[in-house]
Amino acid sequence: MDRLRQANLTRIGPIALFGVLLLAHLPAFAADDVFEVKANKQRLHKDEKLIISIHIASFHKRIRNLRYPKNRRFRLKKRQKSYRKEAIYRAGATPKIRHFWTYTYTFQPRRYGTFTFTQARVRIGRKWLKSTPLQITVQKGVTIHRTSSLSPPKQLSARGDIFLSVDIHPKEVYQGQQTIVSTYLFQRVPCDMDYAQLPRYDGFWKEQLFKARALQNWKRRQINGKTYKYTLMTRVALFPLKSGTLTVDPLVLRIKRKLNDVVDKNEYLRSPVVQVRALPLPTTGKPKGFREQHVGRFSIHSQLNQTKVKQGSPIVLTTTVTGTGQIKQLQVTTPTPPSQIEQLSNRTTHMIKWKDNRLQGTHTTTSLFLPKKPGTWKLPGVAFRYFDPWNKQYITKHTTPHTIEVTPSNIFIAKKHNRAATLILPKTAKKRHGASGMGWLTWLVGVLLFPLIGGLWYVFVVKKQTPQARPLHTQEELALFAKMYREAYRDLSRLMQGPFPLQDREQYGLIERGLLLSLQGLLKRYMMGCSRQELITQLSQPSHPQEWTQALPSLLEDCDTARFAPWPYVPSPQAFQERLTHFFHTLPPPAADDNE
């Protein structure tokens, strides 16, 4: 008995001490609020727009006193807000609801130069979070080669009351350079139409920009002294995949014209066949590793969410390519990290839009890294090579390398084993701006509490390891618990013989609780000094003492591991019957009561 108690106390003591110290250190890593401010560009031209995004993530339901970055040299044109929430599942804990806010502000530069925006700040709960100031440079020049507004060709020959016209601009491009093909419908008489056959665009990479679903937005034009109204039917951006003269297939429409109130006439209308001359890319000055789809005009920059991290904390590298060209076909290489940093995942997103009569967009690559060793490590930059068809030259642009300072962390092992559950990625790995660290204070409190907790544990636990004298009335309590156990076992045996209707679950629960309480009381008497023979004598018949002798060790273990704690009600009587049957067969039958 003494040996069993000593083993239990030796096992529970260090676990309790570790739990108290863990609670003391919880404030050091309980900050789950994320406040990130980023701009789409660090350098831009005056004709471009600056977009500043504020991302907030918190377990609080509300945020207060949000202040966005401002600068009087920039004019605010538009603001947007979005909100969502999701459940965060962590290993060994109940799921929590995390809230996400995104605020987007669009600015237009007013002057040239380098300007600094004010800090953004927000109040979450009782603490204020602030961002680092943004520094934006506005340089002279234009970024996108502008063209005149697209419209039908000026020289048109009327081919009846209804005809199709195709405008292509430009007609001569380099391989991989975009050209815009627009098809217009001209008519003088009303009619109904639908698409009979769409072009296949063999030899091109296609991006559909517009396709009319109804005849609307009419405009008027004079052709050979006759007034026609016209509207845009389709508009696509084509990128030649090979050099040479390529043919654009015609668009076929099915026209339904009314000859009278009874008869309709169906006609098929074809657009003229047009050709595009695709020039091969020059071989002079072609860099090694150049990809043929990188034709256009682009800018690239990378941004790291944080440069000072703890060991095992993920970092996010965002590489953004903006410009005009085949945005969806761009291939941006990921920097090769040193061996001390592990690369976890990559995610690519695209955003394309029709602006300044060209297809423009943004290609964003998000890379997630995990530092494994403390120290100062360098994440190299990446090179992006493309061909500028307007300047007719190859251009190579590099991103700036990033230096990462990794400090040691005591919870790296736990994060390493639980990485799949905690890295819900990469949105949870945001930069925590303005979060005040309390690590040194919690460590100081832990060091001061360690001797105190150790002394209390020695006084109240270690010194009481000697067996205590058996309290008075032990035999009377033992007999009372034995009688309760026999009565509960008898009621349970009677119920096991009949059906288990759903409305009697409460009665089963009461009988089960009585059985468990009596059994725990008996085991508690045994732990307090009753011998095993006394317990067997009170419970079993003289002819069957071996059953309780064999069952007592397992019952003691079950009681010690809290397996006999009251269970909640199960949803169905079948499940309750299975559980109760299993529990019933694990108990030996008690002795009959003499008073029954």
Q: Which key features would you list for this structure?
A:
alpha+beta; Immunoglobulin-like; four-stranded antiparallel beta sheet; single chain; 596 residues; five-stranded antiparallel beta sheet
Quick synopsis:
The chain is of the alpha+beta class and 596 residues long. It is built from 9 helices and 30 strands.
Structural description of this entry:
The structure is a single chain. With 596 residues, the chain is α+β, with helices and mostly antiparallel strands. Among the domains are: 162-279, Immunoglobulin-like (Sandwich), CATH 2.60.40; 290-428, Immunoglobulin-like (Sandwich); 474-585, no CATH class. It is built from nine helices and 30 strands. The protein has helices at 2-24, 412-417, 419-422, 439-460, 474-496, 505-527, 532-539, 545-560, 573-585; strands at residues 34-39, 43-45, 50-58, 64-67, 74-88, 96-109, 113-116, 121-124, 127-130, 135-139, 162-169, 172-174, 179-187, 192-197, 204-211, 219-223, 226-240, 244-248, 252-258, 264-270, 274-279, 297-304, 308-310, 315-324, 341-355, 358-371, 375-379, 383-388, 393-398, 402-407. The strands form nine sheets. Strands 11, 13, 15, 16 and 17 form a five-stranded antiparallel β-sheet that branches. It has a four-stranded antiparallel β-sheet with strand order 1-3-6-5, with no helix packed on it. Strands 22-24-26-25 form a four-stranded antiparallel β-sheet, with no helix packed on it. A hairpin with a 2-residue loop joins strand 25 (341-355) and strand 26 (358-371). Helix 1 (2-24) runs antiparallel to helix 4, helix 5 (474-496) packs antiparallel against helix 6 and helix 7 packs across helix 8. The longest helix has 23 residues, at 2-24. It is elongated, with a radius of gyration of 39 Å. The protein starts with a helix and ends in an 11-residue tail after the last helix.
